[in-house]
Amino acid sequence: MWWESIRNFFVSGVAIDLGTANTLIYSRGRGIILNEPSAIAVNKDTGRVVCVGREATLMLGREPYDTVVHRPMKDGTIADYDLAEKMLRTFFHNACRREYRRYCKLVVSIPSSATQTERRALRNAAHSVGANKVYLIDEGLAAAMGAEVMLRSPHAQLLVDIGGGTTNITIATMTGIIASKSLEIAGTRMTQDIIEYLHRKHKLVVDEQTAEQIKINLGAAIEQDRDVSMLVAGKSLSNYKIREMNILQSEVVEALDHTLSTIIEGVRQVIELSKPAVAVDIHRTGVTLAGGGSLLRDLNRRFHLELGLPAQRASHPMEAVVTGAGMLLDRPELLKRFAGADLVRNEEWVDVPDMPAAG
Predict the structure, then answer these.
(1) DSSP state, 358?
(2) Who has the most CB within 10 Å: 144, 164, 266, 277?
(3) So what's the pLDDT on residue 98?
(4) Domains along the chain?
(5) Which residues of 99-121 are buried (b: 16+ CB within 10 A; e: fewer)?
(6) 203 in Cβ contact with 197 (< 8 Å)
(7) Alpha-carbon distance 180 to 273, whole Å?
């Protein structure tokens, strides 16, 4: 035990939440050092990285003729390995280069539904940035750690992490996961719901960024007392000209209803299949919401109304997964219990070669 403590002092530790919508990186001793959209812009002809993250998303819909913007993550796993590796290496070069002058331990979150092929791809991408030892941790379990619900009580805890590409439903205690379910609908699906609603009802075509802004400004899980509106500009399907119109909040609630009902039904199924003692615990402790999707107005009230359980949002919902994964860096006994280690090199000092900056 004392040797483990000494080694942890010298070993650099980093945690990653490589999400469909956003990538967050946590460094031991420094906290969260990067929070950027999971996007990369590359030159069509050469494949050279033009930019990553927020800078890349600003190009969406306005890309130069020789540049294409990609989102290499889908449903919480790697959809395009080469682009995901380039994006991750550039993020590390920009954010935490100094951590990789030493032997590195890397904790990476992954949906419980990920296949062995998807897990292998994520491990390989993590090793490509210089990590010697890679631990894969269930996203729901990491979120429960980050939200600190498991640290407050020995009882079973229900955590619903609504990310960009996946919603992870997890029942867990400090001894491990009791039950979990991963749904391939989350924040990105909600944005698409708004796009499809405007297309279907108003014959208006809007881009992803506009729909995202509508979700942030007007999104709600239940009808609000005051039906506010937002002026939106898009392309009319009738004459292909630009048209402006006011979108009501009640319309956005309608657009999101099916996706929210599907998520809540998934939670209901997990609870119904749990053992009696676990169900009693959940009845007492309720449900904790995490992830960017949990920021939707009155989502906790809708969960309470439909499930009959107390529902609360984590204090920092978007950071819960990476914070929980980072907490495990300082609790090696829990890390070994919760994660599968993949050590493919000998324990040695790692020196990452210089990388050209993006741009």
Answers:
(1) P
(2) 144
(3) 55
(4) 2-142+319-343 (3.30.420.40), 153-314 (3.30.420.40)
(5) bbebbbbbbbbbbbbbeeebbeb
(6) no
(7) 11
Taking the C-alpha atoms of residue 110 and residue 302, their distance in angstroms, rounded to an integer, is: 27
Mean per-residue pLDDT for 236-258? 95
CA distance 164 to 207: 17
What angle do helix axes 249-272 and 208-218 make, rounded to 10 degrees?
Answer: 80
Reply yes or no on whether the pLDDT at 161 is more than 90.
Answer: yes
Which residues are CB-neighbours of 272 under 8 A, at least 6 positions away?
A: none
Residues 311 and 267 sit within 8 Å (Cβ to Cβ): no
Continuous segment of H or E residues that includes residue 105: strand 104-110
Tokens 């390995």 belong to 81
The pLDDT-based confidence of 354 (bands split at 50, 70, 90) is very low
> What is the rounded distance in angstroms from the CA atom of residue 50 to the CA atom of residue 147?
36
End-to-end Cα distance, the chain: 46
Q: What is the rounded distance in angstroms from the CA atom of residue 159 to the CA atom of residue 137?
A: 15
For residue 242, what pLDDT is reported? 95
For residue 83, what are its two tokens? 């682009």
> Quick one: average pLDDT of 322-344?
78
Angle 208-218/187-202 helices, nearest 10 degrees?
A: 100
CB 170 within 8 A of CB 161: yes
Residue 131: DSSP 8-state: -
Distance CA 229, CA 129 (A): 46
Burial of 173 (0-12, 13-18, 19+ CB in 10 A): middle
Q: Give me the chain's average pLDDT, please.
A: 87
